[in-house]
Amino acid sequence: MLSQKSRHALHAMLYLARQDGSVTAAEIAEAERIPRKFLEQILAQLKARDLVIGKRGPTGGYVLARGPAEISFAEVLRAIDGPLALAPCASQTAFRPCPDCRSIETCEIRPVLIAVRDATAARLEGTSLAQAVAQQSPDLPA
C-alpha cells in the first residue's frame, strides 16, 4: 500500500514538475494541502536522493534536480519508502529472507511476490513525472 508520505512526495514532485522556477515549501504545502513540517521532511529526503535541489535566500525554494521526463514514480517512491517489493525476499535492492522463512528455494509465496514486484516496478519505472503531468499512460510491454 502506498504510504501517505509517498503520496505527498508524488504530489509535491508533480507540483514542481509543473513549475517554471523555484517554489518554496510553503507554496507547495498550500497548493497541495500537505502539512508544511511534514512536507519539509519529505523534501529533505528527496533532496538527499538528488531528486530536488533546495536553494536558500530571497529567491530560494525547490526545483527538480532533473527534467520531469527523467524522474520516474519508482525513484520517488524508493526515496521515501525504500524497496518496491511487498516482502524482503522479493526485493532486488534490499534482498533478505523473511524473518519466518523456512526455505527461500521452496517458498510457494515468493514467486508470486516477485511477479508482483516486477509488474509494479515496470509500471512505476515506466511512468515519469512528465507523463503524469500530461496525463499520459506509459506504454508497457504485455
TrEMBL record:
The keyword DNA-binding applies. It comes from the Bacteria. The keyword DNA-binding applies. SUPFAM superfamilies: Winged helix' DNA-binding domain. GO terms for cellular component: cytosol. Keywords: DNA-binding. GO terms for molecular function: DNA binding; DNA-binding transcription factor activity. NCBIfam families: rrf2_super (TIGR00738). This is Rrf2 family transcriptional regulator. It comes from Paracoccus sphaerophysae. The lineage of its organism: Bacteria, Pseudomonadati, Pseudomonadota, Alphaproteobacteria, Rhodobacterales.
